[in-house]
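task queued by scheduler; priority normal; single chain, no ligands, no partner chains; default sampling; output format set to structure tokens
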Amino acid sequence: MAAPAEPEPGPVLGEADPARPTRTRVERLIRGFLDHLTVERGASPHTVAAYRRDLARYADFLAARGIDDPAGVTDADISAFLASLQAPLDGHQPLSAASATRGLVAVRSLHRFAAAEGITPLNPAAAVKPPKTGRQLPKALDIGQVQALLDTPDPNTTTGLRDAALLELLYGTGGRVSEIVGLDVDDVTAILADPDAGLRLFGKGRKERLVPVGSYARRAVEAWLVRGRPDFAQASTRPSPALLLNSRGQRLSRQSAYGVLQRAASAAQLGVDVSPHTLRHSFATHLLDGGADVRVVQELLGHASVTTTQIYTLVTVEHLREVFLSAHPRAR
């Protein structure tokens, strides 16, 4: 389910605003932290934008409480901010526990940075606990549903060839949608020349990993490059190096990739909401169901910690339980 729409903040923190030549100390701290995320930690523009939105709301909250100095922020202030995220203020809908937790994570990271840089003596956010949420297992398609989804693109059209390459790469590599639409043509030449070569994907923090690519994905990519991509490429006067193009000859966006998945799910009559991340979940779940070691799946997904990957083992255990309850005569 999509997160509730959030109001756009006024000034965009971390960017120049000629209408506001002076900044509060809190805003200067946030700007420095966002620069740190971008330059030193190599965070993606999408991640930085998410932090910017959450911290703009935090800066507004502190300003309303008359707090300008980061050193003057207490754990009570941060707890009040967290409560405000879950309360319907000013006619806005309250955020879900997951969205509120995301806001708290941004605030915690900000104050951890301030303490590490000596800007504040302590980290007041360290003791503030996130709201409790029920554990939500990732939703995965079964193999039949995935097959139906992959069968929907029409190989006789340029769009169909592009969509087939996108879907096969998402499911065949378990890559994030940003990683797949970020690929250039040069990135796939190795896997087309050598079936044993891996595809280099760059995840969060520009962390690189090498992922094997199966024959279905390789054939889909080759068909797109030979029979489809030239048609879209000629629509632009400025050639793009991107592997996946839109009809204007420019790089396919994350939003457009999501639309491809939605149309394919509708055509396949799956009856469930499908996003690019659904195929990533399905990739991991099917590997574990097939006997893959959780640490191998961790490497393929690019997770920094195996703890993140282990949530998929809960999915497979739940599946086993459902089969047992439905099939064994004395299960109930």
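post-processing summary
- Residues 1-133 form a domain with the DNA polymerase; domain 1 fold (CATH 1.10.150.130).
- The chain has 14 helices and two strands.
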